[in-house]
Amino acid sequence: MTVNTVAPVVAGVDLAAWEADGRPACRPGPLNQRQKGGMVTMSEHNGRSIVEDRSPGRVGGLTRACLEAAVLAPSVHNSQPWRFRLRPAGIDVLADRSRRLAVVDPGGRELLISVGAAVLNLRVAILGHGRVPILRVLPDQCEPDLVARVTLGPVTAPDPTVRALLAAIPRRHTNRRPFTAAAVPASVMDELVAAAAAEGAALAIADPIGRDAILGLAATAEDWQRTEAGYRDELTAWTAPPYGRSDGVPAHAFGPHDRYESVPVRDFGLTQPGLHRGDATFEAHPTVLVLRTAADGPRDWVRAGQAMQRVLLTATVRGVATTPMTQALEVPEIRGLLTDPARHRYPQLILRVGYGRPAVASPRRALAEVLVPGQQP
Ligand SMILES: Cc1cc2nc3c(=O)[nH]c(=O)nc-3n(C[C@H](O)[C@H](O)[C@H](O)COP(=O)(O)O)c2cc1C
Q: Can you tell me whether residue 41 is helix, strand or coil?
């Protein structure tokens, strides 16, 4: 099975068309009103409501399964900056800006990438449970925190791609351990590139010169960040004990120190010098990918998040370990060096891929914490 050539995850839904249309400013109306004629509506397909199997105020089995998949998305510093609102016909995904990282992500770009990843998981879960997800990104100018409205579309039979991606959701973890020297086969790289393309983003594989430049910029960026007011405090806020908390990066996920500093994995233990992590030899020539979008606004960041997550899930299906590394993109001057507006290339994520010992899961908040008030699992 070829993961990305079997079928697009959003079979039957032209995501680009949805996004290109734009929304009338501040005009409330039925979710699917604009779809009449071109796309299916809830009343037309007569499908089950996503919440029909719950008693009032409670979340039913299908909804719960989809939400549980959504919250397993990666997020910057495991900040989990999302909220979910149940609607009769689907699920709204909202940004929780109280969880924005004010120092490394003042503009909320990485926040929306993280929320985009949750949206992708939600889509895969809905499709995996036999319904076509209909997606609208940033549908309401009056509610800027409403990142995506996902509606249940027609009944469908999940294909092998969808089933594989769905099964990968709980198995995907950020891996900050050393990788072996084994190269990721070209066929798998092609699948990762196709995964990004299917979501409207581009994934570039760095050649040796580009790789060394990017890794150098990442190291420089992190050095600079360590001197920036607030960086250490923010890092501490998202890594400090008590362990047992349900967000932030736990010590077991920090990974060892890189003995020869060949791979600038972010040092999440920076402000906890007493913590013994050990040293290890990382791969001398990491494989580095850059995920780019053609523009650089909120819509593009949500798109990048979905593309990132589809790449990560595809890698997981193929047994490839992944490490997002975004320090170089958090320092505007350094991100500028990797940006090429004339060619519509805006870097959104740097990714290391390879083979290594499996990583362990980081915690997630309970569904009760991520549902908007008044809704309960
Ligand atoms: C936008 C974004 C940026 C990230 N940047 C980094 C990074 O620079 N270094 C790193 O080790 N992990 C990075 N991560 C991974 C998160 O730390 C990770 O997703 C989170 O701790 C949850 O762990 P999990 O991915 O194992 O579920 C990033 C993730 C996202 C979505």
A: coil
Quote the radius of gyration of the chain (alpha carbons, Å). 20
Ligand 1 atom with the smallest distance to the CA of 114 is: 31
Q: Is 118 touching ligand 1 by the criterion CB < 6 Å? A: no
Give the residue from 174, 163, 172, 207 showing the smallest Cα distance to 189: 207
**Tens digits of pLDDT across the chain (377 residues):** 455 433 344 433 433 334 433 343 343 333 222 222 222 222 223 334 444 444 444 457 889 999 999 999 999 999 999 999 999 889 999 999 999 999 999 999 999 999 999 999 999 999 999 999 999 999 999 999 999 999 999 999 999 999 999 999 999 999 999 999 999 999 999 999 999 999 999 999 999 999 999 999 999 999 999 999 999 999 999 998 876 799 999 999 999 999 999 999 999 999 998 888 899 999 999 999 999 999 999 999 999 999 999 999 999 999 999 999 999 999 999 999 999 999 999 999 999 999 999 999 999 999 999 999 887 76
Domains and CATH numbers, the chain: 15-25+33-173+364-370 (3.40.109), 186-354 (3.40.109.10)
What ligand 1 atom has the least distance to the C-alpha of 74? 19
The b-or-e profile of 163-175 (16+ CB within 10 A means b, else e) is ebbbebbeebbbb
**C-beta 199 within 6 A of ligand 1:** no
Query: Do residues 328 and 218 make contact, with C-beta atoms less than 8 angstroms apart?
Result: yes
Q: Which atom of ligand 1 is nearest to the CA of 348?
A: 1
Which amino acid is located at 12 in the chain?
G
What pTM value is reported for the model? 0.89
3-state secondary structure of 323: strand
Looking at the chain, the number of H-run helices and the number of E-run strands are 12, 10
Give backbone dihedrals phi and psi of 200, rounded to 5 degrees, phi first: 85, 20
Q: Is 322 in the pocket of ligand 1 (CB under 6 A)?
A: no
Give the angle subtended at the CA of 28 by the CAs of 36 and 44, to the nearest 5°: 25
146-155 and 202-205 strand pairing: unpaired
User: Given the CA of residue 175, which atom of ligand 1 is nearest to it?
Assistant: 26
Q: Find out whether the beta carbon of 75 lies less than 6 Å from any atom of ligand 1.
A: yes
Closest-CA residue, ligand 1 atom 19, reads 74
How much distance in Å is there from the Cα of 24 to the middle of ligand 1?
A: 35
